[in-house]
Design goal:
By secondary structure, this protein is of the alpha+beta class. The chain contains 11 helices and 5 strands.
């Protein structure tokens, strides 16, 4: 058993476990994914010890059980899909997509006003830029279906939760040169630490296979000690 295998078993459900959690068959899951009513698995581990990540592509997966892996929060999306089917029948997929995208746009609108100016989607006075918002919503929808957010968002139970993680990452990246900035004033460090903590809470931990390249490493685990060191060093002067 590898550390990757332990991570997947701790944080994800294999296909049989996910089907059981949804009280349905594996074939029913496949049908919903095909109909664009459920995210695809975030990880697929093959029999020849390779793992395919929705974000990072193909990597080694020695001593890791083969299978398709789903975030447990996807049971929420399964229930939403079933409700959409019961209410809208053949139009369920279209309404499911519309609801997701509208919730995402509403969340981005609120986050622009309260957290970070989303420059491609709003002018400086808060007027929406329709094309920018639509591009963001389209991008979010495609990555939702790919299983991306079930890999990188700690609790991806809504489009709003997904949007919050995305904007936290965007703000933190902009203020720190994507985690590459090395020197901070004590004021900058103190302002950034709550943002790092908020992002750490919103973001997934990422698997050992992809961790060295992930945003959490750059923007939480590498950045937080740097900020704390800046505060300590300048407070001692």
């Amino acid at each position: 058993m590898s550390v990757l295998d332990l991570y997947l078993k701790k944080h994800y459900l294999n296909k049989a476990q996910f089907a059981a959690a949804c009280n349905c068959t594996e074939a029913a899951l496949d049908a919903l994914i095909q109909a664009q009513l459920l995210p695809a698995p975030s990880y697929v581990v093959t029999e020849n010890a390779r793992i395919f990540s929705a974000v990072f592509g193909e990597m080694d997966a020695v001593d890791t059980d083969a299978g398709e892996y789903f975030h447990p929060a996807n049971t929420v999306w399964y229930n939403k899909a079933q409700a959409a089917i019961a209410t809208h029948g053949d139009q369920a997929a279209q309404l499911f997509r519309q609801n997701f995208m509208q919730e995402f746009i509403d969340a981005i609108t609120e986050l622009n006003a309260t957290l970070w100016h989303v420059q491609d989607s709003f002018t400086s006075d808060g007027t929406a830029i329709s094309a920018g918002l639509q591009t963001r919503a389209d991008f979010a929808w495609q990555h939702f279906l790919m299983g991306t957010f079930s890999l990188c968002v700690a609790n991806p139970v809504s489009a709003a939760a997904i949007a919050r993680k995305e904007i936290l990452q965007e703000k933190l990246g902009a203020l720190t040169d994507h985690g590459n900035k090395r020197i901070y004033s004590i004021a900058e460090a103190k302002d950034l630490l709550p943002l790092v903590d908020a992002y750490a809470q919103a973001a997934m931990w990422f698997s050992p296979a992809e961790y060295p390249r992930c945003s959490r490493k750059r923007l939480v685990d590498d950045l937080r000690p740097r900020l704390l060191a800046a505060i300590a060093a300048q407070s001692a002067v």
